[in-house]
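Incident review: delayed structure delivery

Summary: a single-chain prediction request sat in the queue longer than the usual turnaround. Root cause was a stuck worker, restarted by the on-call engineer. No data loss occurred. The affected request and its eventual output are reproduced below so the record is complete for anyone auditing the incident later.

Affected input:
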Amino acid sequence: VQLVESGGGLVQPGRSLRLSCAASGFTFSSYTMTWYRQAPGKEREFVGLIASTGITTHYADSVKGRFTVSRDNAKNTVYLQMNSLKPEDTAVYYCKVRFNSNDYWGQGTQVTVSS
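Output delivered after worker restart:
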């Protein structure tokens, strides 16, 4: 199982960014994919998830209405569209899959929201 995040960077408050997570090593279309983030000095926290079919999503209250998780099962990729970014969204963002009772994580991508 391999997960590779990309798309992070430095962005001004109020702007948008889209993260990608490319997956391999498992049947991507059969699994729920989840995004987490970890800010400096804080524990890793749940951001949002998308079920295997892409129909069901769920978000943390802190990002609801601003972030959208989507997936392209043909490309084995899950996305995190982040709009109206705030400085408190600054963190390393990770994607995760639970496969065969084990959690697999990507290496993370840094998002910094600052003017």
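Verification: The two ends are 37 Å apart (CA to CA).
Action items: add queue-age alerting; document worker restart procedure.
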